[in-house]
Amino acid sequence: MRRTIKRIKEALRDESFMHFIEDIEVLVSKALSLLMVVVVLVAIGDLAVFLIKELFDTPYGKFNTTLFKIFGLFLNILIALEILENITAYLRKHVFQVELVIVTSLIAVSRKIIILDLEKVTGIDIIGLGLAVLALSISYWIIRASNKQRN
How many whole angstroms separate alpha carbon 115 and alpha carbon 99? Predict the structure, then answer.
């Protein structure tokens, strides 16, 4: 009888510890969410300032050269929004959604490819980016297929 009571007490201690850890995880996730909102707002402000400056200061015909920088800034904001979505999805379900992580990674690699300066990279860099896109695309396809089978 005493052993049973002792085991119950130990289980309750372990369970309360796990609740404590879960509470810390939720607190950290909420703090990260708020900080990511700040990052997104600052990035939007930075994009607006850069865009206005480029529209009014760039001589005619030179805007195309800064267009890739603008695309990069837009994609930075999209990546930050995807990371925010990852955090909020974790807060809702307490599970990392692998599909969101892969989509975020695809956006990040796509951003790198879009802003890539072909004069400054080597062939191996391009091959590496291609392999990354291929691996992420296959991973995304597998995750989507397995999610469809579950539903």
Answer: 24
Q: Which of 99, 100, 110, 101 is nearest to 141 (CA)?
A: 99
135 has pLDDT over 90 = yes
Q: How many CB atoms lie within 10 A of CB 64?
A: 8
Are 47 and 81 a contacting pair, CB within 8 Å? no
CB count in 10 Å sphere of residue 39: 16
Q: Tell me which of 6-15, 85-94, 120-129 is least confident.
A: 6-15
Amino acid at 88: T
- C-alpha neighbours within 13 Å on the C-beta side of residue 29: 18
